[in-house]
Design a protein that fits this description.
homodimer; alpha+beta; Alpha-Beta Plaits; ten-stranded mixed beta sheet; 5 helices; 10 strands; 30% strand
């Protein structure tokens, strides 16, 4: 029997999703609490790992449990959320067919990276990335279009990634404006490489601050070299916004 | 010589604006740091106090200092912000005429109260007020119109307030929608009574959850009785958004 979970978390107090000996992780907390509630040691499989500090609005994970487990949605959500720390919540849970796999059946994922434009740090936006006010958000907006489509994103992967296939499809990439100089870069794709959103965001800042032109994004993609892209920005302003299984 | 300051703060770690013996307050921190920077013991006068936990995006305050003080905006902002804690920042400072008074020459103030609609607590919105998903934001929106105009707001003042004149003018009152079930009640008025925004917000929730109809807002205003209004909601989701001196 497979149970699918939708999870929201503030990742700022955690060493990322993946369970690691001696570290406080989202997976670690969830596996401990869910195992206690279902009286069986379970393993969680997420749509993907999130790094240290990274948040999720709707991470998806599944676990397997014996067929004779009596699943009661309200009882399960109530018990799990009662025992979880305040910065993690299971928003929903349901039984899914054996063909569902939180990691391998993902169709699309959407991330948001929150940033604000200001000459100085703003206490009300402490969790978000500050970008100096010499930035042009319009140039960043223009650069976003070059991300859309199927591309080899080798320029935007952390060097320590073990991956060899860097081709991913980006369905949408845009800048959202929340007013009061608060923005988010929102990107939807078939999948993302290690640190990919954070490196793209660093590159957008390079473009927004006129260190290169918007169409440099295309050249950086085509060049397939990590060195030409921007730096890896902080994980704290990043949110895994949604995961789509094409249901 | 009068200096006007624009201040942003996250109030969650403070016992409000007003300096109090043995308490950590916004005024206390600012007076200590500004006095050190200008080498003179100064007193700050704000547009109004904010309660414990309440935030400001653009609080305004002024202080007086001897005429021979050499004011350099960049030097002043740099020094003050270097020594202030991370959750308080002086966004701007300028010399103003003697007729300016941060408290007594205010024309309009705008507050925002952030809330989200959800069956459960959301880690990403931990600072905001949760309203259960049986609420109708449209009913709250409808009730807002009765607030606009000149009214006696005696129903919306904390009983311990020492005030006797409860007449205030509300220029605008509305619900902003930020997406993902996050909203803010935004209200602009000539001035606000102690706890007034928080009690109006509590009343809007009563209306949104159908404990009374939208036009009950008018009856509650006319009744001039604190007992008929809603409860005083938490201060943490409240932001003093702007202060307007008609300049």
């Amino acid at each position: 029997m497979k149970i699918k979970l939708i999870i929201e978390y503030d990742g700022s107090q955690y060493s990322g999703w993946q369970a690691q000996e001696g570290q406080r992780t989202i997976q670690g907390e969830l596996e401990r609490v869910v195992s206690d509630v279902v009286h069986e040691k379970i393993t969680l499989y997420a749509s993907g790992r999130t790094d240290a500090g990274v948040n999720a609005r709707a991470q998806v994970a599944h676990f397997e449990i014996g067929e004779n487990f009596k699943f009661n949605r309200f009882q399960f959500l109530g018990s799990v959320n009662f025992f979880l720390p305040d910065d993690i919540i299971v928003k929903d849970a349901c039984v899914v067919g054996d063909d569902f796999d939180a990691r391998f059946t993902v169709k699309k994922k959407t991330y948001r990276y929150y940033f604000y434009v200001s000459r100085f740090e703003r206490p009300l936006f402490a969790k978000f990335l500050r970008v100096n006010d010499n930035v042009s958000v319009d140039l960043m907006r223009e650069a976003c279009q070059y991300l859309i489509g199927e591309h080899d994103f080798k320029s935007f992967v952390a060097r320590k990634s073990g991956k060899t296939n860097f081709v991913r499809t980006i369905y949408d990439a845009k800048i959202l404006d929340f007013g009061d100089d608060l923005f988010a870069f929102e990107i939807t794709g078939s999948g993302f490489l290690y640190n990919m959103v954070r490196i793209i965001m660093g590159t957008l800042i390079k473009i927004g601050t006129k260190k290169c032109a918007p169409n440099a994004m295309k050249e950086i993609i085509d060049g397939k070299s990590r060195a030409s892209a921007g730096k890896t920005v902080s994980g704290t302003p990043l949110v895994l916004f949604s995961v789509d299984y094409g249901e």
